[in-house]
Amino acid sequence: MIRKLVLVLAAAVFAASAASAGEEPAETWVLSGQSNACGRGALPALPANPLVEAFDPKAGKWVPAQDPLPNMGTDRLGPWHAAALEVVARTGKPLRLAGFAEGGQPISYFKSTAPGGKALLQSIRARGAGAGVFLWYQGETDALNKLDPKTYQEELKELVGVVRAEAGNPRMTAVIVQLAHWNSPGRPADFMAIREAQRRFVVADGDALLVSALGRKAGDYVHLHRDGYLELGKEIGRALLKSRYAQKDLDWPGPVLDAAVLSADGKTVVAHFAEVKKLAGVEPADFAIVDSGGAAKSLRAAAAKAEAGNTVVALAFAEPVKLPAALVYGAGNNPKATLVDEAGNRAPAVQIEITQGAAPADQPSVAANGAGK
Fold first, then answer.
1. Cα distances (angstroms) measured from residue 285 to each of 45, 79, 231, 289, 325
2. Domain 256-356 class, CATH top level
3. What is the spatial distance between Cα 105 and Cα 103, in angstroms, rounded to a whole number?
4. pLDDT number for residue 19
5. Taking the domain 2-243, which CATH number applies?
6. Strand, coil or helix: what is 258?
């Protein structure tokens, strides 16, 4: 309790001193995760902006932010600086980046009592008091290890809670990057289950946002290409601008699967997407049937055909769909995941129960949908 009070007071002192000096107080973002959070994209870096700083623990001071970011376990480029540049370009307000990341680590490595968790919390104690945003990109190792998705969701909830407590900000916005691809045929993994666990955490949290890394340009079997990181960073920036920085004229989130209805023929499922006016990039193989409740370790069937309207997709399956069952968008370890909205926002992977009845109307809607507030 005493340490929380000290952190809150430290943040207030910083804000007061900045205000007395006639400066806009900078908001801090805390960054963490494994190798995609570190950044594995090729340089060159994006140009530095004086409104964005990063804390360098070796130098013991704030420095102009530029990839590779300090204390992030990389000599390459990631998504975080691009996200910050997107925000400051629109708001004109300063941001500071601090955190810790390390490649190849499971979520358990970031527990408060484990090495990664201790390093992350130390970075918050050093310069993260009052931080407003926590950016998390991790889960590849847990998918490879086939960690139970409920366990992953529980550990993610615990981690975010600890970060918020350490920063002294219980309403800290958590941005969860939903896992991208896994394309290593000789090494079985379960990326689909971890993506769904990440989405369910966001649905349950209330102060979290989900931005999917799916569909971005790949660099290798699991990491993004430089272009993929930059595209991801820009969408993270749009998500925060819309949800945290009150830039209401921005188009975000992207298309989010919110209904799936089995037609009378027993072989057609009509999927509806909220938060979209015009779908583009529909691929049948991105949609599949799994067991109800998310227990499936493998797909029952992939869609054979897909016909898109503005907000709905009619999916034809070769065999009758037996209920109970669920429909997945972003199925498998390495889906194309090319579905986007009119603004270029990418659809997150979603698993939803299939119902029976009237097909959903092909019209825009707003829904509580797993992309966050």
1. 35, 28, 23, 11, 17
2. mainly beta
3. 6
4. 37
5. 3.40.50.1110
6. strand
